[in-house]
């Protein structure tokens, strides 16, 4: 089971559970850094929370590739810059951390990036509403 912060949520914008959202991450350290896959926990158009294999450094700039798998298609954000704004140890044995990222330069995102972020957000919102509705019916 994943550990979420126990203190009161301090986010400005509510995040949605990221059921089938995957993220590839690349920390900007040098010329020859490689991409690695991570697990996305939650998402909104302003940021995302990921499970990362190493302790992130607060304030670090990172490149992300997001991909939401759906039945007939896949919604992708090819590259977006994000900054680490929160971190919580999830599994000390594996060294896994839950890292909160906020997307950088949001006013400078291309129209395509904004469109894809909104599509991901809308799909996750509809899925969350459907889950709530099904839970209420039980």
Describe the sheet with the most strands: 6 strands, antiparallel, barrel
* Total E-strand runs: 7
Write the H/E string, N to C.
EEEEEEEH
* Multimerization status: single chain
Uncertain runs are 1-6
Structural class, judged by helices and strands?
alpha+beta
Give the strand order, joined by hyphens, for the main sheet.
2-3-4-7-6-5
Give your account of this protein's structure.
The protein is α+β, with helices and mostly antiparallel strands. 20% of the residues lie in helices and 43% in strands. It has one helix and seven strands; from the N terminus they run E-E-E-E-E-E-E-H. Strands 2-3-4-7-6-5 form a six-stranded antiparallel β-barrel. Strand 3 and strand 4 form a beta hairpin. The longest helix is centred in the C-terminal third of the chain and has 27 residues. The chain is globular and about 50 Å long. The two termini are 24 Å apart. The N terminus is likely disordered.
Task: Provide the descriptors you would attach to this structure in a database record.
single chain, 138 residues, alpha+beta, 6-stranded antiparallel β-barrel, 1 helix, globular, disordered N terminus
Set down the secondary structure blueprint.
Layout: E1 16-17, E2 21-27, E3 36-44, E4 47-52, E5 61-69, E6 74-91, E7 96-103, H1 111-137
Antiparallel strand pairs: 1-3, 2-3, 2-5, 3-4, 4-7, 5-6, 6-7
Brief summary:
It is built from one helix and seven strands; from the N terminus they run βββββββα. By secondary structure, the chain is of the alpha+beta class.
